[in-house]
UniProtKB/TrEMBL annotation:
Taxonomy, superkingdom: Bacteria
Lineage: Bacteria, Pseudomonadati, Pseudomonadota, Gammaproteobacteria, Chromatiales
Record-linked InterPro entries: MamC (IPR058956)
Name this protein carries in UniProt: Uncharacterized protein
One of the Pfam families matching this protein, by short name: MamC
Amino acid sequence: MSDHYLVQMTTYPSTPSGGSDCATLVKLATLGAVVGGSVAAATNLQRVQVGELTATGAAAETGKTALTAAVATAIGGAAASSIAEQGLMRLGIMFAAGTLALYGLQRWSQARMNTDE
């Protein structure tokens, strides 16, 4: 009698090497925050140097832009992964969804600021 009957192996569904969907979205959001925040920091630094903005205002604007970019990137990534697995179509969907989310968040933020004044 052979030994292969003595060991019964059970297979479980494996998690993709990239991690869970939530972890992937968190990574995308972090990347979006870093890129968006870096661009905003550079732009706001120039505005501080010419006296158009205070250092505190620049920090607040940079933080707001980084957070908005994080949310928009996560929304874009979620939309892209639900429609396409890879390739140019996925990138196009991610770009379009991220752009729309960023535009919507900026408009909403501006509308809130205008009613507060």
